[in-house]
Design a protein that fits this description.
Helix content is 20%, strand content 31%. 38% of the residues are buried.
């Protein structure tokens, strides 16, 4: 398989940097729920780590020299917020304005930001870098992925479940301070945690450029 659609780097941030991010995110209560927070790119500490050369190096490996961060989300899985996510693809992107094209949609708004399900060509220009502020173990609901599944393009839910039933799965165990890089169309899921250990992940998305093409420009979220 030439491109499994994901890889792990286990030595990225120091323990002190993880602690600093956890503290900064705990103080940033805007839009915060029990399970985390979205639209964090305006938070100074998040913006700084998103533009850190170590994360940019990962993004450039997949997207080229112009890789730029555009969206950041905190996932905070714990005993207070312990959830199951079924097999799926990440299809929605934040955009500055609506495009009159059958390739995009359905459309929605989340906290005032315009979103649309994107075509495969646009999603191929995006990579998520998931910085793990806690170790991701077999006990705390780690991400599971189906290697190479992003190559199938945008799928219906039934097609996703068919692939999940038939193909090999990989459990993504990542050390504290490590990172998981993944394509948005990679089929993935996560189970509920079986132990009372937090699994905080700062999910930062990068694009080859904010202007994706065909009139689509990403919003900073």
């Amino acid at each position: 398989m030439n491109d499994p659609g994901f890889w792990i780097e286990n030595t990225l941030l120091s323990g002190g940097e993880c602690d600093d991010l956890i503290e900064a995110l705990s103080l940033n209560r805007e839009g915060r729920g029990r399970a985390g927070a979205r639209h964090l790119m305006t938070a100074p500490r998040v913006k700084a780590i998103a533009h850190d050369e170590r994360l940019l190096r990962i993004a450039r490996r997949a997207l080229g020299a112009g890789a730029v961060p555009f969206r950041a989300t905190l996932f905070d899985k714990s005993a207070r917020a312990n959830w199951l996510v079924v097999w799926h693809q990440d299809k929605a992107l934040p955009l500055e304005s609506q495009i009159e094209s059958p390739e995009w949609g359905p459309w929605s708004r989340k906290a005032g930001i315009l979103y649309a399900h994107a075509p495969a060509w646009a999603l191929s220009r995006v990579l998520a870098v998931r910085a793990h502020l806690d170790a991701s173990t077999t006990e705390n609901g780690p991400l599971r992925v189906i290697p190479g599944s992003h190559a199938a393009g945008v799928l219906r839910d039934d097609e996703v479940f068919d692939i999940a039933r038939a193909q090999e799965k990989v459990e993504c165990l990542v050390s504290r301070g490590g990172a998981l890089a993944m394509r948005p169309l990679l089929i993935h899921c996560s189970s509920k945690a079986r132990a009372d250990r937090p699994r905080r992940v700062l999910h930062i998305e990068y694009a080859a450029a904010l202007d994706l093409g065909a009139g689509a420009r990403l919003a900073i979220a």
